[in-house]
Amino acid sequence: MADYKALNYDHEGDIVTIQFDRPDKLNAINGTMRTELREAAEEAAVSDARVVILKGSGRAFSAGVDHDLLREMGEYESDRFRWEYRRHHRMFDEYEHMEKPVIAAVNGVCAGGGFELALHCDFIVATESATFGYPEDNIGFIPASGACAKLSKEVGSFQAKELVLCTGSKGSMVTAEEAHDRFGFVNRVYDDDSFDSDIQSFAEDLADTAPLATAVGKKILTQSQDMAYVAAREFERTGQSLLAQSQDHEEGMAAFQENRDPEFEGK
Hints:
The chain has about 270 residues and is of the alpha/beta class. Helix content is about 50%, strand content about 15%. It folds into two domains: about 5-205, Alpha-Beta Complex (2-enoyl-CoA Hydratase, Chain A, domain 1), CATH 3.90.226; about 210-255, Lyase 2-enoyl-coa Hydratase, Chain  A, domain 2 (Orthogonal Bundle). The chain has eleven helices and ten strands. α1 runs parallel beside α3 (about 80-95), α5 (about 145-155) packs across α6 and α9 runs antiparallel to α10. It holds the Pfam family ECH_1. Belongs to the enoyl-CoA hydratase/isomerase family.
């Protein structure tokens, strides 16, 4: 295991938990955390864990990119800036394309790049007191790590414009209830007091699913958004044809016939 400075990495049973550990900075993403998030993603991806949880420490999930890193990047020429942003985006991609379900467990503030990172996860669950917003407009920026493109697809362009352009101040941030009921990007809202146990139960339920089927389903659901319908259907058929030959499928069928819980091995 790597010696992390800005994160806590815990692998227990089928679940890896990656916790941001800069609570005094509302877990803002600095250069060290960005590098370590990629390293942690790689460590989790090649482990035998079946589910990954991203969570914050203190009173925030993450307030976004650290202003010191933004100032440093702002001094670059345009070509260097674009190169740095591509490197920045690879960190988000590691979680979106990991062949395991990734849960963003959002407590407190989830803003800017922290919000964008959550959008690259497979599930967003939140405490009742969580809030979401994009303050980039306050410094003459846009949320440019996928939020504009992803939100337009996920919630529609009109809703996306409200999230990107109208949630920059503390008083205009979106509550967890609004995120779930109105915008639809939060899957579940849990009581603050039971949040940790509720996340654990959700992760354990996901860990009980067939790993290969979960990985294939995630890949198809993620990539089919950019495919024509006919191509996406062919992608489904190809995935299903491979799963039909798997040991997990055989085990699932046998367990169903024998009226017992399946014991999947990811093979």
